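Review form for a predicted model. The reviewer records the input and the model, then writes brief findings.
Reviewer: anonymous (R2)
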Amino acid sequence: MSKLLDYARTAKVDIVLIGAAFVWGASYLAAKQLTEAGSLWGMMALRFTAAAVILGFIRAFRPVKFSKADIWVGSAVGVGLATVMTVETNGIHLTSATNAGLIISLSIIFTPILEGWVRKFWLPKNFFVAAVGAVVGVAFLVSGNGLQAPNWGDALMFGAAVLRAFYQVVQGSLTADRKLTTINLTIFQTLTAGVIFFIVDAPGTVRAAFSYGAKEWALLAFLVLLCTVYGFFAMMWGIRRTSASRIALLQGTEPVWAVFIALLFGGEQLNWVGAVGALLIIGSCYWGLGIEAKARLARAI
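Model under review:
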């Protein structure tokens, strides 16, 4: 009976996190259109600051006192988030979308390696086979336009993949076994990131706020409400209930959702190689999630 309850709880977490992966996959198209309309940093400052304000309003219905741990852990996680997104965004700017998508997916492999080193608990070898399978699937999925010769953007994307893995492991470690409130943490996470992006480009933030039309504000609302308020709250909630390795695998489905949205709304097409890649990602992630769940359950007994 207890095993059934554990699997039910795991399934609940997975559904919430797959939802986050879906909206983050959809965010690429929206973010691309917004960066063409104004400052990238300004867009991110507006996105994360607005998310923090909305989370604050939501919290007002069931206020829980901010603890010192909520403040410093949430702020630390926010600094990490801003760092990862800065490196990743600059890498995407300097290299092709194909190279970027493939290289950032390496975090699927780096995360369990770092988590195993930190927690002194190694997942079975089959998990890493599944992780490699997911990365190969990403390579197939994004290879339609071919790979470009390596450049500094690729180096930044490699660094971003390592930073993303490190960020997830540290976030899990900072929030584990502490009396913390998820919404309080997420408020300080998003607020800290928003303030950092505003400092980077305050004039661009102001110009973006005054130059956006109805379309841009609608796209920003999508990024704020679904991709940030829901997405980062789901991530903070989920990482306190599962492992960073499991979250990395679930995030590995992001490219699939990104392509799905691009097909529906961006007018893009998917060839048979890309379709094989999408199936390989989904199959590898499903296999890896089962391995991780059994290993974590066995450790808990």
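Findings: The chain has a mean pLDDT of 84.
Further findings: The radius of gyration is 19 Å.
Recommendation: see findings above.
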